[in-house]
Amino acid sequence: MASIPSSDHQPINTTDAWRALAAHAATTVDGDELDLTRLFDTDPERAARFTVEAAGLYVDFSKNLVTEETIGLLADLADAADVAAKRDAMFSGRRINTTEDRAVLHTALRRPATDVVEVEGEPGVNVVDEVHEVLGRMSAFANRVRSGEWTGATGQAIETVVNLGIGGSDLGPAMAYRALRPFARPPHSHWDLDVRFVSNIDPTDIHEALLDLDPETTMFIVVSKTFSTIETLTNAKTARHWLVDALGAEAVGRHFVAVSTNEERVADFGIDTTNMFGFWDWVGGRYSVGSAVGLSLMLAIGPDGFREFLSGMHDVDLHFQSAPAAENLPMLIGLLGIWYGNFLGAETQAVLPYSDHLSRFPAYLQQLDMESNGKRVTKDGRPVTVDTGPIVWGEPGTNGQHAFYQLIHQGTRLIPADFIGFIHPSDPIGDHHDLLMANFFAQTEALAFGGNSGSDESDLQRAFPGNRPTTTIVAERLDPRTLGALIALYEHKVFTMGAVWGINSFDQFGVELGKVLATAITPELQSTSDLAHDASTNALITRYRNHRAG
Ligand code: F6P
């Protein structure tokens, strides 16, 4: 097992770098030195100097509440926390997920076939070879389904793919499919594959997904790293009943494939393991969209599109590995998160994509960030001494503008926000895109510089105080490569923050207790046995039992 870096044995807030930032925060905030209007007025080069471009992403940090000194001190903090050494340990296959004794190698999923990466303690096994072997099988399968060569049990081509998974086995491919739908229908093609996602154990989810489907033309992909997740297995059983009722048990082999690390459980479920696409324990669920978990995405956009998507991730991996902290996009975004969360009192981070195709991106980032960095114990088992992961939330613009932006503009809380926009529209219609982007630019301007300031009371109600920090991310267009880059940007942002706090960003024990309790409660709902919970839970279950029986 990889040893814990010596920097993690010292509480981060006892380091000189942390103290320097605390002092800097006190003087700059009290001295009003972080006033964006003044910072821009006194430095005509600020926009240029605080903009970094890499991997097709143009990122303007200038509307953040920082000076060059702040960025220097944050880079010192990254040094004090050994972020670069920890990053290198991750990329090289060290077992940095210490609680589960696993390597963390989602970056190996997007490496070129010529690279070599071995997991610590497993010499001679190049994981990149294994990755490309599975990619090759996925591509061959995707080509067969997309061309109509793979048919269902009655000889009909597949028209609808239903992805059955939850958490990382759903959010990544569902978000990416929604983002890249324009790439799923090549111009002049007659091919028309619909992809749906069922995750919730709420029967409505699968009921509505199957309502208008024809079993003869439907394929299910059961995606579960562990193949033990109750939601996914319940939905998969329901789907199998639906199919078998229509086509008979022998049809299952033509209509079900699996994505998992657990071959035995896939076989037990009744899916032929020749129709299984594997991945590895060193791919965390929320980091898995570049593995076979992305099979539904590959079926939609094709193997070439999927490889472009991986290339975009790899572009950012290379940048993250090589750029100095002050020019390193994921590190900067992560360090700004530390600045706002730990030194300026922000509790949340808004993500505001100006693209309806990115409507699931905030939800995707919620799992990525909150499941990774929602931790209260450091890697060496001590309670953390500072706040950790932010609450991540957001909605696409301009919808959010007519809902919650009021609070960002005029509320009492500090809400740093990432704005994500594109030069070219995914779906060009009239002047929609210019109107969308005019709002995109207007919002960060209004948030930074405010307006309508006046002295009497009615003016105050209307005044925009400004000085609300934003980061603006602009790319040419939302294509597979750009989406891959955006995902890797946030993956490494989350890594940077976890590395500074000295926590393990790659386990998720916090999701377990609820699962255990639900397993105990399930039989109680269908019996009249005595209940031994707390008084509130007993009363709620009793009411449920009585009213359900009634
Ligand atoms: O409950 C949390 C979780 O373990 C996530 O981390 C994971 O992405 C999800 O459940 C699904 O797990 P699996 O892919 O094993 O079904």
What does this structure look like?
The chain has helices at residues 16-30, 36-42, 46-49, 68-80, 83-91, 127-147, 171-179, 203-210, 230-247, 252-255, 263-269, 295-322, 329-343, 361-373, 405-410, 432-449, 457-462, 480-501, 512-525, 535-549, and strands at residues 51-54, 57-60, 160-164, 194-198, 218-223, 256-260, 276-278, 348-353, 391-393, 417-422, 470-475. With 550 residues, it is an alpha/beta fold. The mean pLDDT is 95. The protein binds 6-O-phosphono-beta-D-fructofuranose. 6-O-phosphono-beta-D-fructofuranose binds at residues 166-169, 224-226, 229, 232, 285-286, 371, 508, 511.
Set down the secondary structure blueprint:
Layout: H1 16-30, H2 36-42, H3 46-49, E1 51-54, E2 57-60, H4 68-80, H5 83-91, H6 127-147, E3 160-164, H7 171-179, E4 194-198, H8 203-210, E5 218-223, H9 230-247, H10 252-255, E6 256-260, H11 263-269, E7 276-278, H12 295-322, H13 329-343, E8 348-353, H14 361-373, E9 391-393, H15 405-410, E10 417-422, H16 432-449, H17 457-462, E11 470-475, H18 480-501, H19 512-525, H20 535-549
Parallel strand pairs: 3-4, 3-5, 5-6, 6-7, 8-9, 8-10, 10-11
Antiparallel strand pairs: 1-2, 2-11
Helix pairs in contact: 1-4, 4-13, 6-12, 7-12, 7-14, 12-18, 13-18, 14-18
The protein binds 6-O-phosphono-beta-D-fructofuranose (F6P).
The site of 6-O-phosphono-beta-D-fructofuranose has 14 residues, from loops.
